[in-house]
Amino acid sequence: MATFQKTNINSSTSNENCIDRGLQKSNSESILERPSGGQPSNRPPVKVDSSFFKTCKIVASGVDSLSLSLIPGWRNTSTLEYLAGLKEKAQIENDIVEGVLKPDNDCEPWKFNIRSHGVRAYSYLLDGKDYFIKIFNSVKPAQRPGITIEIRSETLWANGPVHAVEYILDVLEGVGANILAIKPSRIDLCADIRMDASLWTPLIKNYAVTRAKLKNSWEYGSEFTGLSIGRGHISARLYDKVREIKQKSKKFWMFDIWGIKEDELSEDEKIIRVEFQLRREVIKQLIDCDIFNTLEYLDKIWGYCSQEWLKFQDSPGEHHTKRHNLFWWDTIQNGFQGIQSPYPFCKKKSF
Question: What share of the chain is helix, strand, coil (3-state, %, to 5)?
Fold first, then answer.
């Protein structure tokens, strides 16, 4: 997410009216058409112009970042010796050096750049377009992770998380690694919602119901751009994804995933990313199993994040039994699709 300045929240009548219109949808939807998983309500419906809500829908959801910790042993020293030679060359040239891991199985080779230095206990830093890998220089397994892998966002969207994990594990096993344990150390789950721009206001901070104590809102210039909630083992970010793409990440391939063109969004619409970041400690509490089983239960993890840990509800200050979801948060809760399928358009642009 781009670096933004923190803003002080000042309520305005017009913004409050926008929020209130969203609340009316929440009230009426509980009677008329609440998505699956919601609780029925006895409140009378409120007359609302349905055209006001026509753009509120999920356009993409899935895993945007995934980091793994591996405990390996090595069948021989050849791969570690190869990496040592590349690193020495990088140190002599004072620059990164290209390398390639060539598995002895049917897996395609993986190209990378090796850095001239290590970090902490990891001697070898391998940086590719699709993965960033740190390797500990030891043939024997240790208690600490001997390999860590960060899977790039493009790779996850292009191939899906299961295939992205399977491929790099096949590469490592094909060059001599015996992988004894695989644990997720970080998962970022996200849903991108296309919504009316008038609902995107700094006042949404006041409607957050969360177990976290820390809440910050952000702006770029005078424009509200995002909200961050919590830190540490679990946190959430809500931000203007189109602005972030244009100003920082340049991930214009996301428009293909959303199925829209850059000029298709009107000034009255936003695509807001709702993203939860979970680290090893909370992942282990929720799903104490290996990476592939964890990937099968992403919908349950999303359910915990969006139903138990964070919600956006009406009537701030009221008892929790009198509060109800804002209508767009119902969409967020029920819109996560679980395992991503490969996106061929993204793949063409990424590789």
Answer: 35, 30, 35
Q: In the chain, how many H helices and how many E strands?
A: 11, 14
Q: In whole angstroms, what is the distance from residue 64 CA to residue 206 CA?
A: 27
Residue 36 has pLDDT above 60, yes or no: no
Q: Summarize pLDDT for 252-273 with one digit per residue, the tens.
A: 999 999 999 988 998 899 999 9
Cβ neighbour number for residue 279 with a 10 Å cutoff:
16
Strands 269-279 and 310-312: unpaired
The CB density around residue 3, as the number of other CB atoms within 10 Å, is 8
Angle in degrees, CA 238, 333, 226, rounded to 5: 5
CA angle 123–124–128, rounded 5-degree value: 160
Q: Where are the alpha helices (DSSP H) in the chain?
A: 13-32, 78-93, 153-159, 161-174, 241-244, 254-258, 280-286, 291-296, 298-303, 327-334, 344-350
- Is 248 strand, coil or helix? helix
End-to-end CA distance of the chain: 23
Q: In what order do the strands lie in the sheet with 269-279?
A: 5-6, 215-220, 223-229, 234-240, 269-279, 177-196, 57-74, 147-151, 131-136, 122-127, 110-114, 97-101
pLDDT in tens, 292-324: 989 999 999 999 999 999 999 999 989 888 999
Q: Are 301 and 284 in contact (CB under 8 A)?
A: no
Helices 327-334 & 13-32 angle (0-180, nearest 10): 60
Spatial contact of 34 and 245, defined as CB atoms under 8 Å apart:
no
The residue that leads in pLDDT, 98 or 24, is 98
| Residue 114: how many other CB atoms lie within 10 Å | 23
Contact yes or no for 73/180 (Cβ under 8 A):
yes
Tell me how far the alpha carbon of residue 151 is from its chain's centroid.
Answer: 12
